[in-house]
Amino acid sequence: MGKICVVVGTRPEIIKVAPVILEFRQRGFHDYVLINTGQHKDLSEPYWELFDLKPDYNLSVMAQGSSLGIMTSRAFQQLDELFNEIRASSPIDAILAQGDTTTVMVSSVLAFYRNLPFAHLEAGLRSFDLMNPFPEEFNRKVTSLVTQLHLAPTAKAKTNLLSEGVPENRISVIGNTVVDALKFVKNLPVFSDPSFSNRELNSTFYNYERHVLITCHRRENHGGNLLELIKAVSRLAKDQQDTFFIWPVHPNPNVRSTVLSNKDLTSFKNVLLVDPLEYMDVIKVLSNCHMVISDSGGIQEEAPSFRVPVLVFRNATERTEAIEAGLSKLVQANAEDIIHDYYNFKPEFGKDFENPFGDGLAAKRAVDLLFQLKM
Ligand code: UDP
Predict the structure, then answer these.
(1) Which domain holds residue 235?
(2) Tell me: the pLDDT tens digits for 173-216?
């Protein structure tokens, strides 16, 4: 009997792969190994515990100050050596990874080199701009070239793959496992405890009636775009003193130094600039939130589950389903536009509204398909 190698490296990958591992366990299936490449070591730690997961192998593809090229080459070398080590004790049946990071691209190419089936969770997302998001759009396209099992989250993602010539019998629309992860987290007893594990958030959150969540991390937004967002949030905070603006600041130095050194933004009592939050805290904020302004993929997918509108701080998004449903809106990187949309974008979430990204059963479907692939 061989093994399925599941490779993750960043915070969203752990969140979105966790439901698949939990489904393996639920079915008493233990022939898998969980590999952490450490692509985002500093952001990933709390997530293992939340989902009660423990990687079987920890790599360290990220070296201090390393370029994308060096990180990619470290990922190739370390993963390839690890696959050799794993194969020495039992054959590898398939490799699975989620999303569009360097970890995923490298895992898929190594599966191809070894003539192993690769299963791609969240397959088929496209912005149709190779430079944006960079390098993720490139990573996705490379991965799709060598994937046997395309686990597409939505019909739109399937259409994208078909238009690139992927045979239809290799694509299954399963929903996005992020909705499964949300369901899992909302069922934990700690979800009904209104307190937060972040102390700053805990001592301030309930002093305000209305809450806005802000995140920004993408390369395309470093520099001028980020300054426009800061300008907009500062103006909104000044004009809306009863509203609390919660901004977990990404550790990327290009983001952190710009946000935390801004004298205007840091002067407001109703703006909380805080370290990245634990997932449970984000979900609690979302469940009490008036609006989100974000460039995060995962948050765009999570917010509809809480009927929270999102101003998507990007030129284009590969997650157009919420935009087409009128629940999210792309916002220009310009303070006036952000402020205008903040006041004017008021989507209606109907009574029977459902999250367009998934129904919470994606992991079950993924595991059914993986077992067919393994046979
Ligand atoms: N997230 C988190 N803490 C934070 C900000 C985000 O746990 O301070 C979660 C968020 O709920 C979502 C995921 O991280 O599930 C998204 O990660 P990120 O924005 O880094 O990546 P993307 O989804 O854009 O690839």
Answers:
(1) 195-344
(2) 999 999 999 999 999 999 999 999 999 999 999 999 999 999 99
d(CA 269, CA 288): 19
Taking Cα atoms as reference points, which of 200, 271, 269, 286 lies closest to residue 231?
271
Same domain for 367 and 283: no
Q: Phi/psi at 7 (nearest 5 deg)?
A: -115, 130
Q: Which atom of ligand 1 is nearest to the CA of 215?
A: 5
Same domain? 166 vs 199: no
Instruction: State the pLDDT at residue 238.
Output: 98
Looking at the structure, do residues 370 and 288 belong to the same domain, yes or no? no
Number of domains composing the chain: 2
The H or E element spanning position 279 is: helix 279-286
| CATH number (domain holding residue 96) | 3.40.50.2000
Burial classification of residue 355, based on how many CB atoms lie within 10 Å of its CB (0-12 exposed, 13-18 middle, 19 or more buried): buried
Ligand 1 shell residues, CB under 6 Å: 11-12, 15, 215, 217, 248, 276-277, 279, 282, 296-299, 302
Same domain, yes or no, for 49 and 101? Answer: yes
Give the Cα-Cα-Cα angle 151, 157, 162 (nearest 5 degrees): 90
Read off the pTM. Answer: 0.96
